[in-house]
Design goal:
Elements lengths: L3 E4 L5 E5 L4 H13 L2 E6 L5 H12 L3 E4 L5 E5 L12 E2 L4 H12 L4 E5 L10 H9 L3 E4 L7 E4 L8 E3 L5 H12 L4 E6 L6 H8 L4 E5 L5 E6 L9 E2 L4 H13 L4 E8 L6 H8 L3 E10 L2 E9 L7 E2 L11 H8 L4 E6 L11 H11 L3 E4 L3 E6 L8 E2 L5 H13 L4 E3 L12 H7 L3 E4 L10
Parallel strand pairs: 2-15, 3-14, 6-7, 10-11, 18-19, 22-23
Antiparallel strand pairs: 1-23, 1-24, 3-5, 4-5, 7-9, 8-9, 11-13, 12-13, 15-17, 16-17, 19-21, 20-21
Helix pairs in contact: 1-2, 1-3, 1-6, 2-3, 3-5, 4-5, 7-9, 7-11, 9-11
The chain binds shikimate-3-phosphate and phosphoenolpyruvate.
Shikimate-3-phosphate binds next to helix 3 and helix 5.
Pathway: Metabolic intermediate biosynthesis; chorismate biosynthesis; chorismate from D-erythrose 4-phosphate and phosphoenolpyruvate: step 6/7
Subunit structure: Monomer.
Subcellular location: Cytoplasm
């Protein structure tokens, strides 16, 4: 456990670049492992979650070589060519790594054991195992389909038509990855659109894919199985979910003026920025450009007077990981911020709805936690002074450190070590902007994080 304290202090200023996008980084390694030849990746996120996926791809027979600053070379084995791993695959804290790999491996005729940390071992895997079982995968799992578990893929998988029952890019992606090694056409219908990185990268790597979108936004994705995937250079853009932390910090710390460079603006990921602008945030998108098929920009953010808003439930998929940090912004807004459609937050690295509510309570922020909603009332009294339990959840840790930077009293999180799952260098990056973050127990000025 590495407790860390955020102290309110001076304005934040400067230019920073956040690390590469986590979703694209996992997928770049996975598609690289399935392509025959060399996939060069630039700017891979070198966080614990992604490094677990890299290790898994090696165990499945791919060659994954790290160069400098996130440049990686992957030599793949081809769809259908994965090797049986000799040891269990450990996905650490990563739902994305575990669920995408279940889909990938589940239609290969081999056995594999999946492990994870205490947080991942509590999360539901049935949402991915159910379609896999229909494709012919055998599963040995504990009650409730949690990790650790073992799977064995069929000799020949059955292609599936599957309607995703929860809005989840991980489930959609797992079924599409499974469909890659099934003969015929696998169809995934998502009633609510979620992040589309898998579809974009399948197309980039040369898969035969057809996507139709209904008037109500429902998407049908048809994938022709057993393609020969071609290696594709991947440049990983900055992660908007990581950019959210310095952006919200600059909005709530008076006098701040910060630029976060190279942030991906894929529309399936930008719900937080839409919401912050509705709240009155001074955000400008500078130097917009297209790189690797994604729009990216430098986001210029200045301290702003925020007002509470209602965030509609249909926006949730495009900002699903950003509700904890939005709650920190809402604590400093005038009036109430109502966030609806949050049921999925209960099955993330922690029960994020409960963890956010407990953190707000510990720091004097007025709020109401519902079954699938959260209402935060800003500025009702002094904020801060509490210790927040992170429950092995990086986003809880970072969100409450951000809250502490603008609070009336310091805020401590009980374990900042978990931040390395998605955002190594978070504390140094924030300190570079002027944030006062230090190991809990130190007095101001000693041993800066
Ligand atoms: O597909 C992905 O890369 C992700 C999908 C989301 O999860 P769900 O699919 O469970 O909503 C998100 O929370 C996670 O951080 C990354
Ligand atoms: C939910 C998250 O990740 P994962 O599901 O990959 O653990 C996240 O990064 O907030």
């Amino acid at each position: 456990m590495r407790p860390l304290t955020a102290r309110p202090g001076s304005a934040l200023s400067g230019r920073v670049a956040v690390p590469g996008d986590k979703s694209i980084s996992h997928r770049a390694l996975i598609f690289g492992a399935l392509a025959i030849g060399e996939t060069a990746i630039d700017g891979l996120l070198q966080s614990e979650d992604v490094l677990c996926t890299a290790a898994a791809m090696r165990a499945l027979g791919a060659t994954v070589v790290a160069g400098e600053n996130g440049s990686y070379k992957v030599h793949g084995v081809g769809v259908g060519g994965l090797m049986e791993p000799e040891t269990p695959l450990d996905f650490g804290n990563s739902g994305t790594g575990a669920r995408l790999a279940l889909g990938l491996i589940g239609t290969h005729p081999l056995a594999a054991v999946f492990l994870g940390d205490a947080s991942l071992s509590r999360r539901p895997m049935g949402r991915v195992l159910e379609p896999l079982r229909a494709m012919g995968t055998e599963v040995i799992a504990r009650d409730g389909d949690r990790l650790p578990l073992a799977i064995r893929g069929p000799k020949t998988a059955i292609p599936l038509e599957y309607r995703v029952p929860v809005p989840s890019a991980q489930v959609k992606s797992a079924v599409l990855l499974a469909g890659l090694n099934a003969p015929g056409i696998t169809t995934v219908i998502e009633p609510v659109a979620t992040r589309d990185h898998t579809e974009r990268m399948l197309e980039g790597f040369g898969a035969d894919l057809d996507i139709t979108v209904e008037d109500d936004g429902a998407r049908t994705i048809r994938l022709v199985g057993q393609p020969k995937l071609k290696p594709q250079p991947v440049t990983v853009p900055g992660d908007p979910s990581s950019a959210a932390f310095p952006i919200v910090a600059a909005l709530i710390v008076p006098g701040s003026d910060v630029v976060v460079e190279n942030v991906m603006l894929n529309e399936s990921r930008t719900g937080l920025f839409t919401t912050l602008i509705e709240m009155g945030a001074d955000l400008s998108f500078e130097n917009e450009r297209v790189s690797g098929g994604e729009t990216i920009a430098d986001i210029h953010v200045r301290h702003s007077t925020l007002k509470g808003v209602t965030v509609p439930p249909d926006r949730a998929p495009s900002m699903i990981d950003e509700y904890p940090v939005l709650s920190a912004a809402a604590a400093f807004a005038d009036g109430q911020t109502m966030m609806e459609g949050l049921a999925e937050l209960r099955v993330k690295e922690s029960d994020r709805l409960a963890a956010v509510a407990a953190g707000l309570a510990a720091n004097g922020v007025t709020h109401e936690e519902g079954a699938d909603f959260l209402v935060v009332t800003g500025r009702t009294g002094d904020i801060g002074g509490g210790t927040v339990t992170t429950h092995l959840d990086h986003r809880i840790a970072m969100s409450f450190l951000v809250l502490g930077l603008a609070a009336d009293r310091p805020v401590t999180v009980d374990d900042a070590g978990v931040i390395n799952t998605s955002f190594p260098g978070f504390a140094d990056l924030m300190a570079g902007l002027g944030a006062d973050l230090e190991p809990a127990g130190n007095t101001a000025g000693e041993a800066k994080a």
